[in-house]
Amino acid sequence: MALISSKNWMAHYQKEDFRGDFFAGVIVAIMLVPQGMAYAMLAGLPPVIGLYASTIPLIVYAFFGSSRHLAVGPVAMISLLVYAGCSRLSTPGSGEYLSLVIMICLIVGALQVLLGIFRMGFLINYISHAAIRGFTSAAALVIFSSQLAHIFGVKIPGGSHSIFHTVWELIRNLGETNLLTLLIGGLGIFILLLLAKKFPHFPAPLLVVVIGTLGVFVFKLDKAGVGIVGNVPSGLPSLGFPKTDISTLKTLMPVSLTILFVGFMESIAVAEMIASREKYKLNSNRELLGLGLANLCCGFFSGYPVTGGFSRTAVNHRAGAKTPLASIITGILVILTLLFLTSLFYYLPRAILSAIIIVAVLGLFNLKEGVRLFRIKKTDGVTFFITFAITLAFGVEKGIITGVLFSLMLFIWRSAHPHTAELGYLEKEGIFRNIKRYPQAKTFPGVLILRVDASMYFANMAFIEDCIRDKIEEYSKLKHIVFDMEGVNDMDAEAVSILEELMEQYKSRGIRFIFASVKGPVRDVIKKAGWKEKYGDIERLSLKHALESQGENSPPPKMST
Amino acid sequence: MALISSKNWMAHYQKEDFRGDFFAGVIVAIMLVPQGMAYAMLAGLPPVIGLYASTIPLIVYAFFGSSRHLAVGPVAMISLLVYAGCSRLSTPGSGEYLSLVIMICLIVGALQVLLGIFRMGFLINYISHAAIRGFTSAAALVIFSSQLAHIFGVKIPGGSHSIFHTVWELIRNLGETNLLTLLIGGLGIFILLLLAKKFPHFPAPLLVVVIGTLGVFVFKLDKAGVGIVGNVPSGLPSLGFPKTDISTLKTLMPVSLTILFVGFMESIAVAEMIASREKYKLNSNRELLGLGLANLCCGFFSGYPVTGGFSRTAVNHRAGAKTPLASIITGILVILTLLFLTSLFYYLPRAILSAIIIVAVLGLFNLKEGVRLFRIKKTDGVTFFITFAITLAFGVEKGIITGVLFSLMLFIWRSAHPHTAELGYLEKEGIFRNIKRYPQAKTFPGVLILRVDASMYFANMAFIEDCIRDKIEEYSKLKHIVFDMEGVNDMDAEAVSILEELMEQYKSRGIRFIFASVKGPVRDVIKKAGWKEKYGDIERLSLKHALESQGENSPPPKMST
Asked: Mean pLDDT over all residues of chain B?
């Protein structure tokens, strides 16, 4: 498959698609302009950076990505990660801060392109959804609390990523609340929530932006202390490349990797949802390439990291977008806005932007999902809530990393303590089952049938060895121990050594090991270890075969089937 | 089980055991005195520290450990790790260096005691033996090369842990070789190797120590530039506690953890070997407690980290030790040596100590083991050689950590790309098998039987989903897809979601999913997810049951058995 197949949709563009693409492109642009400014503010950047990030990257993605509906641009979660990563190293708003952000954007872009070229898109699979969902819910709370200060018109000493600190500082400074700002912000939230409920298709953010801006302009509220966006430079960003050195690159690597994976995760999740609904196939490596090139261009044009946004993609699809042309139209409209309309944003109150952010992230807070996960599978629920708690208590970066590592360690831990079962025979059904769950299952004198529900490898062999030894001690006159190997999907050299040790040790006590239903990959290992030469014919096709033929030294216990 | 069961052997001590214990205690002491001094030198410490570490810790372990034969004391691998960890932070031989080492000893001891009390001994299982063996072979080379300088009597600028650097510096400075030193060292190695081969039970180290010391003393070789041990302070160490702060503790944590796990691994490996031969049971948590208390005491009495040594434990067992009393006798003999015999070591040439170290570690270098692992299971061989290479190229700490993480990641990676098989029916045998391995297996029209050889969880669901979709597209008139769930040992909420998505999507195309031979733990998850309510009766006891009854909308394909 060619990496660049953008020609597909361009070569086969059909006239009748244009109406949908154009309409969707306009709708998304109307949504994106206020959101872009708001999210840039969340990232600790001047609002215009959010607009820059909403131009070229969209057009680049349209040419290289594999989703036909993905709306690329600034998103809340990434903006929060940018703030968390950079505010520790520099003062938000400073030139140094901006160049750090641009560096991150370039690192993320370059790594995404590399991962795409080397087809490493599968790496995303190692991120547990339970962890991502716990993280998202917590991040929504963190974003919410960070915006409260703007809504109350209160200044909070920056740099904190723990929600408790933010809320505490807010309470401490509540006396300085600017009531007009609070009124504007509160009204903004109210209108946004109301419209979202009553007229979900109406571009509510644009409305509150217009109302808010007019309000401030007419009543000169900026003189009364209402924070406004102020001067937004008009025109397009110039091409540039930040100066940097290896040690800065190293410092920025953890946050860049976090942004890369969280951003890619959000993007591919929504892209796949739409793709499966529209019945076309995504290519995760092309997605990485598309997003990577978008971020590289974004970095060169003074933007900040972008990805496919959840809500705007849904809007794009619902508004009738058929091809990536919709995104190109959105990009062009934002460019026109930058060229001709930036002066209109002068009186836009920051509290309105905060209101837009708050309403956007409210939907991401979803503890019920954690409860649902907990109900279906306890470990998933635990992953959700641990990620949630760590994100709240120690910040977003530590939260997501803890969540991802925790879910993987949990998997390893579980595999190190595998489920084992002693089996008996259900005569009517003709199958073998756990005698604990089926007490009526028939057992055979002198024979222990043991099922190990895990691949055998170094981390669980100590456990399995103990289990085998304990079981053997339970029986006094054991002659055969038959392993049901259906659940043993793989085996490593360590498992081979320990089983050999056991076989040799119990040989002297007259106990013979039989392995039934051995799977291909395991059979290969056993063959290479030379078990046939060492221990004779100890493999059987199935448990039935094992029980019918296991007696070379003792008479076989006949099965009554 | 009581944590302290040392009273067992003391209360039931039998007179006839004393002969063996006494003899073994003496033999091990004769071996330990030169080894202790040599290993201390390897760790960058004055030789007397090695003797200190061979006193109280042995007696403490005898009271608290669970092995009856383990010979605790300084070992080569740990000494190397101590040197690697501390020579980066301070100059070997300085007072600061010594207090860092003592801190490490206390940290290791405290953590071991904690892990033992909280019964975390199982953590050791997560360390792959393939990684440990690769590490050991590489560490043997590193130790070997580090001792060459002493044998040649050449000074090498310290602090390097890369073998290439050490060897390069040795070659660069070869012109300064002290021929007398080389002669002594070479002769020492020759005698040690010869005696090890001809008279393996003879205490060869003592002999070369005596010969070397006499040689230097008689011919005044120290005046000719042969490095000697010099003044070894007599008497017992005083009780002390090093001054420290949190930041030093933090710095020492990685090396302490490495020493803890590598040391525990070496100790438990040899202890288990002897225990299984003597038919008694070890308790890994009691082992941790015993070693931890030994290290704590060792730290308080100016020692450095100890663990159960491989060769001395084997000698102890072979020499007839029956109870931990043998170790107590060894400890007392070393104390007597410290009190009365230290002046004898003044003329002991350092090259002899190096010769003892070199011969001791030669047996640890074993690349054949890597080849054997590679033959049985490629991934184990890869783990061995990667750990080996990283240890050589980047030093022992990075090597062991890389090895441990690599082996775990490999396991996750393999579980994310599970083996899958399409099954057919072997009529004669009455079993289902992979149609690729058994082309004669019978298939059924309109029915796809799919076996997934892995637990289903977030990291492999993308792979499994692709596999299912591809298989479905291969068949045109598919009515049923039957999953053989024998190999699916567990399932998480993510797997449930994706399977639900697939079932709903293919329902419209008239394809029904059937799950056969579902294991208990998986059945519990399916039940909680409410599949019976959502999708009806889609579970079957076995593949046979599934194929006999799957046709609720289509006639069942009769099986000809």
From this structure: 89
